[in-house]
Amino acid sequence: MLIFKMMNCINKKYMKPRVLQLFILTCTAVIFTTSCNKLDLVPTNDLTADKVYTSAAGYKQSLAKVYGAFALTGNASVGQPDIPVEIIKDEGNSDFLRLYWNLQELTTDEAVWSWQNDAGIQGLHEMTWSSINSIINGLYYRSFFQITLCNDFINQSSDDNLNKRGIVGADADQVRKFRAEARFIRAYQYAVLMDIYGNPPLVTETTEIGGKDLPKQISRKDLFAYVESELKAIENDLAAPKANEYGRADRAASWALLSRIYLNAEVYTGTARYTDAITYCNKITAAGYTLHGNYRELTIADNHLNTDENIFTINYDGTSTQNYGGTTYLMHGPAHVPAEVSGSNGDWGGLRITQQFVNLFADKTGATDTRAQFYMSGQNMEVNDLYTSNDGYSSTKYRNKTRSGGPAPHQDIAKDFSDIDFPLFRLGEIYLTYAEAILRGGSGGSLTQALTYINQLRTRAYNGSTAGNITSSALTTDFILDERGRELWYEASRRTDLIRFGKFTTAAYLWAWKGGVKGGTAVNSKYNLYPLPPTDLSANPNLRQNTGY
Length: 549
What we know:
- The chain is mainly alpha-helical.
- The chain is built from 20 helices and six strands.
């Protein structure tokens, strides 16, 4: 799809920038601020920075491109020259969410994919990937693409540039809020890189592009400190919780990201930060968020209405953000799910689930715990063959229909694309983070409150019944891992959770075809991190590959 199918774009319900103008000005912005800083050249289309960034409205349109990089692909060879050629051939594979989701889910008990000839697929679930895997390399470059957009916007919105362009008063204050949002998105992407790759290079708005000094690699511990400091620095510049336009970052989004990295801090830095995780969970719960009443409405076509629970989302629109990644992948991908169930024009025969994950639910039908959303007709529960589309139940969690059962609000005529927003952060995760941090010794909360949060999740899952509620004696860390699986499955968190619990590469938990063995086996601990792309290593002598690759 052309990248100028921008978000009505950034949000299908609120922001309506002039799409073509936005495409032109934002795509040229990176060119003239990076390539021309040492040359006396002017872009031939005449849209220079001093013409683009003349008003708060112009800055807002450019901010839409920063957000749009979450949901749009465009021509992957433009602006992203290092995206693997295999990914470029299938543009949907270059979508941030599809790349990230695959690395977080296809490597775990939650998902397998049928098409073994798809670029980068073979070796992911088996945990035998190498440094030339195109999905692994694709996410790295996709994250840095969005970071590049953020860095440019942060530069263009500096106080010095605002003063030079005569943007003062309320307009300048508004742009500073935009700048804080760009810093949040950059921090989010660095948190992704920290979790996935550990030790990437660090490039900020002060890094000279094209200079003699290539970007320096940053340790995982130092990157954690950088992300933490950025999020704390922008806290008061972001809009108050629930005060921003839907789909744009506010303080609660920043708090949610902090709570997530604090929960995983021991993995990232060697030092536990569970008390800090609780602190930021408390900030969110005090901000007025509540659990949405119906779990099965969390991932459907009108889930933009779930402002009670959604904290920050990637927004998808069936007419304005068309690509074959994102929630379109999660809607179409599950094997053999009928079109009338998914709200699409048919399935791709791809995504299935291992029996070990399905067995987290005592009742697989979803009649008791509604979070069990499995398509079982014609599907074998056992994954006897990793690449056979009938082996393994499929997911019906992402449905391109409204809560009334009607068509998606912005359904394309062919029913190819999804209207489902993806929840990067929602209150259900915050409740689980709080409970786990309490059990792991964090202070600032109580076991009583942790139990209350867990039982609120389970009461919601059981359609308002307390039949699934647990007692304090059942509230253990092992229970939390299973409950995170039931509550957050297919929401791109499973790999990170399994690593935190010491069950990703070890023999402590085995699932079908882990390690390439039908019954599962332990693998080398090097697979707790993904490798850096060889192209970056060869181009930048400052970088060192992760151990074992």
